[in-house]
Design goal:
Number of strands: 10
Number of helices: 12
Largest sheet: 8 strands, mixed
Structural class: alpha/beta
């Protein structure tokens, strides 16, 4: 049974977040929250390959805890449009600042990496590019096309920004026929001002629904981070909103603070509560729910796609 996120503690609100930022000690990291170390021959080989091709991965740029596991299984999430983001979200480790020039050779190099890695399922994401009219949608489409041309049969999932609500940009991406369209909601509406500066909850929902309208057969996916001060009831409400906006696949994971400069962890959500959310999502009608402390939006992405297509 799901319990309130605030059980046994003061109700976590934005003042609680501010108190933690002011130096109040956060919760102790539990012993069960451990990820494999980034070591091994496959890890070293992929790191060298990505460096040689002058590519970026969200695995490294966003300090993903699963980089050791994923790279040793020869999977990675490529990050296009540079590694400098135009937004300043409080949870994200990606560098913020003036964006880089668009590199139109990047799609070719991503496709080359996908080929050399022998991938059958590739995940492509990007920084926010609010400096561009299409938000970078053109490069998403070019990358999908390059992978399809160079690695026949490889599935392509894209994790896109909200494109500032630009439907024409979303259409550019969907016209390239990704196998999965992912856009993360990230958190509950009450926490958007602290967590997703520059984003709007309703806008993200609209873009998810519009993607499904453009291609009814393409699975649509979204995800949330837990542990930022949300209540269980709020998470369930977002899940219901996502289902009503045609989202098929849901990911739920624990927020992990990249550095002392980022938003604090209000609470470590135990695995049993992730299990409860997964069961609730199943009853709501999601085709697949990937939920657990170390789950990220592209974690086991190929398995999620396969489950959603069954």
């Amino acid at each position: 049974m799901l319990v309130s996120i605030s059980e046994g503690a003061a109700k976590p609100t934005s003042p609680a977040i501010r108190a933690r930022l002011a130096g109040v000690p956060g919760p102790t990291r539990p012993a069960w929250l451990r990820a494999p170390a980034p070591v091994g021959s496959n890890y070293r080989e992929l790191k060298s390959l990505i460096t040689d091709l002058k590519l970026h991965t969200v695995c490294e740029s966003a300090a993903c805890p699963n980089v050791g596991e994923c790279w040793n299984h020869r999977t990675a999430t490529f990050m296009i449009l540079g590694n400098v983001c135009t937004r300043r979200c409080g949870f994200c480790a990606v560098q913020k600042g003036a964006p880089l020039a668009v590199d139109y050779d990047e799609p070719r190099r991503v496709a080359e990496a996908v080929s050399l890695m022998g991938l059958k399922y590739a995940v492509i994401t990007s920084v926010n590019r609010d400096d561009r009219k299409d938000g970078g949608a053109e490069l998403f489409a070019l990358t999908i096309e390059a992978i399809r041309a160079n690695v026949p049969g490889c599935k392509v999932e894209v994790l896109v920004p909200d494109f500032q609500g630009n439907r024409a940009a979303m259409k550019i991406v969907m016209d390239a026929r990704p196998d999965v369209l992912n856009h993360n909601t990230e958190t509950v509406p009450r926490l958007y001002r602290q967590v997703r500066l520059g984003a709007r909850y309703e806008r993200s929902l609209d873009m998810l629904r519009y993607a499904k309208e453009l291609s009814s057969e393409t699975p649509v996916k979204s995800g949330l981070m837990l542990g930022l001060g949300e209540l269980a009831e709020e998470v369930l409400s977002v899940m219901q909103d996502l289902r009503s906006h045609s989202v098929d696949i849901l990911t739920l994971g624990q927020y992990l603070r990249p550095s002392p400069k980022h938003l604090p962890i209000v609470r470590y959500v135990p695995p049993v509560e992730f299990d409860d959310f997964r069961e609730a999502g199943r009853k709501m009608g999601f085709a697949h729910v990937e939920a657990g402390p170390l789950v990220r939006s592209s974690y086991h992405a190929d398995d999620s796609h396969a489950a959603a297509r069954c």
